[in-house]
Amino acid sequence: MMIDLYIVRHGQTTWNVQKRMQGRLDSALTKKGVEDAKRLRDYLATTPFDEVISSPSGRAYTTAKLIRPNETNMKTDPRLMEIHLGKWQGKTDDEIYHEFPSEYDHYWNAPERYYNDGGETFTDVMTRVEDFLQEIERMHGGGRVLMVTHGVTIMAFLSIVKKHSLNNFWSAPISEGTSLTLIRLDKGERKLLVEASVEHLSLVSVY
């Protein structure tokens, strides 16, 4: 059965604006984050979904509810959560750069060497994303699935589908808030159809 995964990054949050690492912590959507989600809601208004699955994190779940306000059977899956960043969580990029210079360099420039005490590695994230994909392929009867997740998690989806090695984890462009990526699962093949589209953000706002 052919399955189309519509993968959305959550809307902009207050910590995104502050360049503060969230990981498993959370912060509220900004006004822009809410408005962008509403634009995506309108953009996808005529697209039927067989299932809606969100990361349990508040910023993702709130985005999912804005995109699909009438969904009565929305599911959450912890495998869609953001990378756990251990002691980095809640700190700004600048604070992390100065407190953990070697780890910070590995995070961005040598992801295969990145390790964060108390957190996840990129391999950990890719393992749970691969597990999620295999379950969808095995259990889902076909159709369209809307998923709301996080930036690093989306990079893991892209790395898996593009068959990138871990050192090329960041080779794809980083997804903006509410960006839309479309992956097709068909007879054991995984195809990237749309990558990090923000076409909906060019729509005229009525909010």
Write the layout of secondary structure elements.
Blueprint: E1 3-9, H1 14-17, H2 31-43, E2 51-54, H3 58-67, E3 75-76, H4 93-99, H5 101-109, H6 122-139, E4 143-149, H7 151-162, E5 180-186, E6 189-197
Parallel strand pairs: 1-4, 2-3, 2-4
Antiparallel strand pairs: 1-5, 5-6
What does this structure look like?
It is a single chain. Helices cover 35% and strands 17% of the residues. By secondary structure, it is of the alpha/beta class. It has a single domain (3-85, 121-202), classed as 3-Layer(aba) Sandwich (Rossmann fold). Helix 2 crosses helix 3 (58-67), helix 4 crosses helix 5 (101-109) and helix 6 packs across helix 7. The longest helix is centred in the middle third of the chain and has 18 residues, at 122-139. The radius of gyration is 17 Å and the shape is globular. The protein starts with a strand and ends in a 10-residue tail after the last strand. The mean pLDDT is 95.
CATH-derived architecture? 3-Layer(aba) Sandwich
Task: Tell me the CATH topology.
Answer: Rossmann fold
β-strand number: 6
Tell me the major beta sheet.
6 strands, mixed
Order of helices and strands: EHHEHEHHHEHEE
Question: Span from first to last CA?
Answer: 39 Å
Domain unit count: 1
CATH superfamily: Phosphoglycerate mutase-like
Beta-strand residue fraction:
15-25%
Shape: globular
Task: Based on the model shown, name its key terms.
single chain, 207 residues, alpha/beta, Rossmann fold, 6-stranded mixed β-sheet, 6 strands, His_Pase_superF_clade-1, hydrolase activity, glycolysis
